[in-house]
Amino acid sequence: MIIDLKSVQDAPRHFDFALQPDWWHPEGEDDQVLGMDGPLDVRITIYRAGTKHILEGRLSGTLRVRCDRCLEPCRHDLSKEFRLFLAPPPATAESEIELEQEDLSLDFVVSDEVDLEEIVREQIYFSLPMKVLCKENCLGLCPSCGANLNLEKCGCPKGEGHPEFSKLKSLKF
Ligand SMILES: [Zn+2]
Ligand SMILES: [Zn+2]
Residue 129 — φ and ψ, nearest 5°? Predict the structure, then answer.
């Protein structure tokens, strides 16, 4: 959904829509977001502030993501509010640095148009935690044989695994 910023003058414009699960296409096989469980509700308001535009948005829905430890698909509830400043790109590199320090969420728009779906896509990635886990105590995969240790015990010798994993194991037993 492409919005021409020139069409947003004194009155704010609202864009409320739902993106259906078939909207999401993972970027390659290792995309962390596999898809969506049901529609994603999007509420966006764009208004003008001087020479800039401000975009405020809210996303809510359920994602299907891949657990970082065991690589199995799991659900991740998404509920996120965000705010972006839309401004033309700065003329010089110097002013770019200034602006970045001033406001990290300043989003430069090269043209007068913004693609709301592209913005939503970006915000979905930003909403993910550093480590996505299917459950807090996910045991992950055996580093030697690749078995999913949540589902089975493998016969590999202990102590050769990832340090984080052996720590978890000693906690458990
Ligand atoms: Zn897991
Ligand atoms: Zn193993």
Answer: -70, 165
